[in-house]
Design goal:
Blueprint (H helix, E strand, L loop, with lengths): L5 H39 L9 H20 L5 H21 L4 H26 L8 H19 L3 H25 L1 H10 L1 H22 L3 H4 L2 H18 L14 H21 L4 H28 L7 H44 L5 H25 L9 H14 L4 E6 L9 H19 L4 E9 L2 E8 L15 H12 L3 E6 L5 E8 L5 H7 L1
Parallel strand pairs: 1-2
Antiparallel strand pairs: 2-3, 3-5, 4-5
Helix pairs in contact: 1-2, 1-12, 2-3, 2-10, 3-4, 4-5, 4-6, 5-6, 8-10, 13-14, 15-16
Amino acid sequence: MGKEPYNIRKGMEVENTKNTYFSRQIICVLNQFAVIIYLGFIAYNGHYIESNYLVHFLSLSLLFFDAAYISYKNVKCNKVLNHFSLLLLLLGWQFLLYLFDFRPISKAVSMLLLPVCFYQSAYFIQTFLFQSSAYRGQKALLAFLKISCVTAIICFFFSDRAFFTAYQLQFFISTLALAVVGIIQRKRIVFVLKSQRKRLLFPLTLVVIPFVIYLSVFHREAEYMASMGSYIPVMLAFVCIHSIVFQYHPQQVQFLTLSGGYIVALVFVGLVGLVGMAYLFQIPLMAILMSVYIVVLLAQVYNILLYVRICRQPTNYNNPTDRQHFYAYSLEQIKREENLKKDFSNYLHDNILQNLLSIKNMLCKAEQPEIRRLLLDTLTELNASIRFQMQTYHPNLVKSLTLKENIQNLLDSMEENHSANICLDCDKDVFLVEPYNVLIYRMIKELVTNALKHSSATTIDVLLMQEDGRITLKVTDNGIGFKPFTYKSGSHQGLASIGEQVSLLDGTMNIQPATGGGTAVVISMPMNGGDSYENFVGR
C-alpha cells in the first residue's frame, strides 16, 4: 500500500495533538478535584492549616496552579513542557502529603515520592539546560540518577532507616554527579546564564527577597521554619524556568482578555480580601483556601469546554477578520511550498528521474550478470540519494549523540560514496543552542556536497568552533577552485541560500582561495542564546 497523502497525514497529526492537549487538561482537572477532596477529608477529620504552615501551603498551591497554567499554554504539546507540568504536580503532592501526614498512608506516600521527585527534578533540569541534546558525561549522569533513585525506592520497603540512608546517598551521589557534569560543561552553563540573565533577575526578586524577609521574621520560631529549606530551591528553580519559557508570549487563542499583570494583581487583591473577610467573620482558613481551589477548578473546566467548542466550530470565512487572517497565512504558506516544490522538482529531475530512466533501459538486458550488478548498484545509489535528500529537507539529529558525533556520522556517510577524504576538526564538547545546531548541520552538508560535486577535491577539511558566543565554520578543499561570485546574484543556489541565512543572522560568509590551491568557505556568526528557548519549547 502507498503512503497516505500529505494532507491526510497532517490532519492526523493535528488531531493527535488536539487529543493529547485535551487529555492533559483532563489530568489537571482531575488533579485539582483530588486536591479538593483531600483537603475536605482533612477538614472532616478535624485537621486544619495552622498559621505556621500557611506559607508552606501557599507555596505548594502555586506549584499546582502553575502546572495547570503550563498545561493550558502548551497547545503544541511540547514534551519538555509536559514533563515540567507533571513534575510540578509531583512536587505539589509530595509537599501536601508531608504537610498533613496524619495518616500512615499519607506519610508513606510522601516518603516514597521523595526519591522520585529528586530524580525527576534533576533529570528535567539537565534536559532543559542542554535542550534535550547529548553531551559528554550524560550517560554516566543519567545512570547515577536512575540507580540511586531505584535503590532508595527498594530500601523503602525494608525499613525507614535503610530508606533515609539510601535517600541521603542518592542526594549526595546525584549532586556530586551534577556538579562534575557542570564543571565539564561549564562553558555551556555560563553561556546560558549570561544569555538569560535578564530573565533570571526576576525570580531572584520574586522568590529570594520574600523568603529572606520570612526567615528574618520567624528565624526564632522552630515551627515556622520546619522544612522551609526544601521549598526555597524548588520555588526558585520553577520560577526561573517559568520565566524563561514564557518570555516569548506565543500566539494562540486567549481565553482571558486581560494581560498577565492585571490578572495577577486582581488575584492578589481577591486573596487579600478573602483573608480579611475570614479574619473579620471568623471563617476557617481552610474554607477560604478550599474556595480558591474550587474557583480554579471551575476556571479549568470552563477552559476545557471553551476549547472543545473552538475545536468543533470551524473558521467562518464569511467573516472579514477570519478571511483576512486566513489569506495572509495562506499566501505565506503558498510561497514556502512553491520554493520547496521547485527545489524538490530539480532533485527529482536531476537525480531520481535519470536513475529511473537508466534502470528502464537496462531491464531489457537484465539476464546478463554485469547488467544485474549495475542495476543493483543503481538502486543502492538511488536509495542512498533519497535518504540523503530526506536529511537535507529535515535533518534528524540523533538526540543520544553529541553535535560532533552527529556531524561526524554525516561526513562518514558522505565519504562512503566518494573517493575524497573528509576530516572534521571540532572540540568534543562544542555546543550550539537551537536553532543554530540544525542550521550549521545543514550548512556543513551543503558546503561539503558542493565541494564533492564541483571541486574534484581529494581532501575536504571541516572546522567548527564556538568561542565566546561566536560560531566559526570553515570548509576547505584542495580542488580546482572557482571564480569568485556574489552569492546574492542568483547563481549557485545552495551557496546563495546559505549566504542569505548567514546574513539574516547578522553573520558573514567569505569565499576565498585556499592555501596551496582549492577553495575555503568561512562563515562567522554570533550565537544568540536569548531566543534559543523559544525554538526549543516551540518546536
